[in-house]
Amino acid sequence: MTSEIHHTQSVGRYRDVFRRSVEDPESFWLEATMQIDWDAAPTRAVDDSNAPLYRWFPDGVLNTSYNCLDRHVAAGFGDRPALIHDAPLAPEGQQRTAYTYAELTEDVARCAGMLRAAGVNAGDRVVVYLPMIPAAAITMLACARLGAVHSMVFGGFAPKELAARIDDAQPTAVVTATGGVEPTRRIEYLPAVAEALRLATHRVEAVVVKHRDGFETAVADVSAQSAPTHWLDWDDAITQADAVAPVPVRATDPLYILYTSGTTGAPKGVVRDHGGHAVALRWSMENIYDVGPGQVMFTASDVGWVVGHSYIVYAPLLAGATSILYEGKPVGTPDAGAFWRLIEEYGVRSFFTAPTALRAVRKTDPDGLLREGRDLSSLKTLFVAGERLDPETQRWAADLLGVPVVDNWWQTETGWPIGANPVGLEPLPIKEGSCTVPSPGYAVEVLDALGKPVGPGEEGNICLKLPMAPGNLPTLWGNDQRFIDSYLTAFDGYYATGDSGYIDDDGYLFVMGRTDDVINVSGHRLSTGALEQALASHPAVAECAVIGLDDQLKGQRPFGYVVLKSGVEVPGSGSTAEEELLAQLRATVRESVGAVADFKEVAIVEALPKTRSGKILRKTMRQLAQGDEMKVPSTIEDATVLDALAPILRRAR
Ligand code: COA
Ligand code: AMP
């Protein structure tokens, strides 16, 4: 089934634009380049000379930070708010900081000067381990200004994961802060950074630390462990730094690396280029998110995730809009009315969050009492992504807010929606359970296991016909072959998204779930492989399996099942010894992957069901645990193992 729109009801404009984007991508995207300022404007859109590796705008030269900042100042909009940091947990008087375009340009130029003085030049990498504070956006844009490549790491990851990213990206510098603030605790970042530097084999030249009040660890406590790395204080260094002008780079040069979970424990370094990214994101702002210059977008995600990269930092600024950087939670900071407060206070036009965040708000305030009395008339659309939007949450939010609730489906790899309701271009009727239609630029097809297109309504592998749209990953960092093997080999001529789903008679796309062992917890993508690797590192564990089970709040939750090594005895279920071991197993995952894994459920079992070739039947375990229709493969080695496991798996429901 291909992504052709069949019905004509209200789909005139979208249909024409979509058709042109896939039939003549060259002229479609060259036209879109007009929205970007170039040092050398591209004369070609896509370079297919090295297929299946494609490059966008091969002869274009630009600077992304110039496009996000300086050009708006030059156009006379220096006084317009660019970024507003809203931090409800900060001390009185520090809860709101607003930057105009002129101020943000100045700070980014100085930050670029600071990084250059620390040894960072065009092409060098900078690992950024920062919470949701302005320094995060400033550092990203400063790297872009220098032509350096940033790699953000979410604060919920453990030192081992940070070290793995440092070793893969080989950064010249790490930028961090003394800590991050969670509703229930303060998270000290410096010990984690020092530990990651100790674990990594790569030597980092400099660590820049943004000091925040209220954290215990000082640079002096940790810097000696990581000699000869220089530790710099952000505030001192930035005051002494010169402002740096934007460095022109090729459109095909890397802007950032963002690591994401694959099916194995080794994270994949998704690369984003400058040119395709700027063109696609700029285009998406007006056509999908319906936000233009001077309008306000609030994306409640984290800058450590792709949604944060694209729609907290780059896209709103490329469009000359105002972006809200919210260092808070959907609930508990201080209450479930936080989102509504922000929308009213800042006049938000487009609000973007994850379904899990809405479910958290709904659980706490099901009748929306905290929305009462708020003037939300600025709000035109609520966008959600990160996981499937369940119809109940969609209805609840639409009733509460009185605006369309628009699902959009994408991945770290694509950088912007593969499927969405193109509200800015032409609002299409919403169908529950569907992310609406393929975005212009994405030739979406649903293929069976042999690579043949399936019929309308039939589920299969959702694939993107090559070349993928601009802004999508050109490769994995330093590893073209892994990129080809992971995404481009299963279906010749296509990128395999790893998601399954179908396209209905009207051309609407329904994304149903992953085809691999990637799970989605609170809108965060996790690899069960990485969790298993952590569990397996415990000395008592012989083998293990982690599966993701449906969860009413978080979408999915990871459940671990471990078989102990022979000779390791645990007396009886519920015994203190067993509880201690289970606590150790949870702690092992937390130490190894991080709090973000949210790994709380683990059980000791006698054996795991396997095929005769030794493959653990995770899918069958999941079906059994959830009470779904179960298909036991004929290749199962010993069906009695599954029978014995059944009561334990059912307990997870
Ligand atoms: N740094 C360090 N630790 C972090 C962290 C960060 N930036 N973010 C989360 N954590 C920790 C939490 O403190 C928690 O630790 P705990 O086990 O000690 O309590 C753990 O990671 C899990 O946190 P979280 O996933 O946030 O679960 P929660 O139960 O605290 O909150 C929600 C549930 C739904 C409110 C929350 O997950 C949420 O806001 N989700 C939205 C996610 C989102 O916007 N995703 C964007 C994808 S587009
Ligand atoms: P990430 O790369 O972390 O953004 O995770 C991407 C994965 O999350 C996708 O491959 C999907 O499995 C899932 N996902 C994201 N958005 C949606 C959505 N709107 N509907 C269904 N699944 C989604």
Automatic annotation (TrEMBL):
All copies of domain Acetyl-coenzyme A synthetase N-terminal, residue ranges: 14-68
Pfam families registered for this protein in UniProt: ACAS_N (PF16177), AMP-binding (PF00501), AMP-binding_C (PF13193)
Domain AMP-binding enzyme C-terminal span(s) in chain numbering: 531-615
Alphabetical list of InterPro entries matching this protein: ACAS_N (IPR032387), AMP-bd_C (IPR025110), AMP-bd_C_sf (IPR045851), AMP-binding_CS (IPR020845), AMP-dep_synth/lig_dom (IPR000873), ANL_N_sf (IPR042099)
Domain AMP-dependent synthetase/ligase, chain residue ranges per copy: 72-467
Highest taxon of source: Bacteria
Family membership: Belongs to the ATP-dependent AMP-binding enzyme family.
PANTHER family linked to this entry: ACYL-COA SYNTHETASE, ACYL-COA SYNTHETASE SHORT-CHAIN FAMILY MEMBER 3, MITOCHONDRIAL
Listed name of the protein: AMP-binding protein
